[in-house]
Amino acid sequence: MLLKIEKNSKVIEKNYGTVKDGLKAYERGKGSPKQPEDKDEFKEFKASKPFFSNQKKDDSYRMFLSGSDLQRYHLKWSGKFLSYGNHLAAPRDSKLFEGERLLIARIPVKSIYTFRATYTKENFVHEQSIESITNLKVSPLYLIGVLNSKILSFYAIEKFDFLQRNTFPQMRLTQIKQFPIPNSNDDQQNEIADLVVQIMEEMTKEKVNQDLVDSLNTEIDELVMDLFGLTEEEKQIIRDFEV
After folding, report:
1. By C-alpha distance, which of 81, 15, 74 is closest to 201?
2. Is 10 helix (H, G, I), strand (E, B) or coil?
3. DSSP code of 36?
4. What pLDDT is attached to residue 167?
5. Domain of 29?
6. 3-class SS at 114?
7. Residue 43: which pLDDT band, with cuts at 50, 70 and 90?
């Protein structure tokens, strides 16, 4: 089934967007001015968490997302700020953190929906626990629907086996770049995007209607499986898939 999924799709990188690592705040001897090179000095420096704050102290401070702030179809910002600039070990290009883009957490959840992906156009910055997908070439809402679908979880778990590792499981940048996005036309993309909008709106409510979210998830799963060209027997394997 993995071969069929790959045959009826194109990988994200170059075809649908550009996948990039987040910034790196700390590293010995990096940044300008340089962070401490001595091991013990650096350990103490990092433990004091310079650059982070719970308030916007000046214009260099930008809203910061950690991996735990990212949920399926929803961002729940903790209120943390990061002073962004050349003093960071690897600040990356600031354009990476601006405009329309997708965010996906590198640490998977042990669930039939293993990925946490969502959309934003807010100027959040984030470290490498979150990957950013920019330069989007199709509807971002369609892409989120596919990334958060059950069949993508099935594919990635079977293909990369990251939930079975003895070490702390996380996806690599190279793996995310290879995620298959099914071939589709505008109408098919819009149908999935409309369902994604409903989920995202529901997720912002104080009391989420989980039955509605579950129903919408199932609708998206069925549509995405159709786009991958699965037979009814193959679809049932995905429906019955458990982690």
Report:
1. 74
2. strand
3. P
4. 61
5. 2-239
6. coil
7. very high
CA distance 182 to 5: 8
- Please give the C-alpha separations between residue 101 and each of 109, 153, 229, in angstroms, as whole numbers: 22, 21, 28
> Taking Cα atoms as reference points, which of 113, 127, 110, 126 lies closest to residue 163?
110
Amino acid at 23: L
Q: How far is CA 50 from the centre of its chain?
A: 26
CATH code, 186: 3.90.220.10
Tokens representing 119?
Answer: 């959309």
Domain count, the chain: 1
pLDDT tens by residue, 68-96: 999 999 999 999 999 999 999 999 999 99
Paired residues of 166 in beta bridges: none
d(CA 136, CA 142): 11
Residue 108, pLDDT > 90, answer no
**156-187: buried (b, 16+ CB within 10 Å) or exposed (e) per residue?**
bbeebebeeeeeebebeeeebbbbbbbebeee
pLDDT at 55 over 80: yes
Q: pTM for the full model?
A: 0.93
Distance of CA 90 to the CA centre of its chain: 20
Closest CA to 197 of 114, 140, 122, 121: 140
Mean pLDDT of 187-200: 98
C-alpha distances out from residue 232 to 235, 237, 243, Å: 5, 9, 21
Amino acid at 185: N
Residue 86 phi/psi, 5-degree rounding, is: -70, -10
Note the helical H segments in the chain.
2-7, 12-15, 39-47, 140-147, 150-160, 173-177, 186-203, 210-227, 232-239
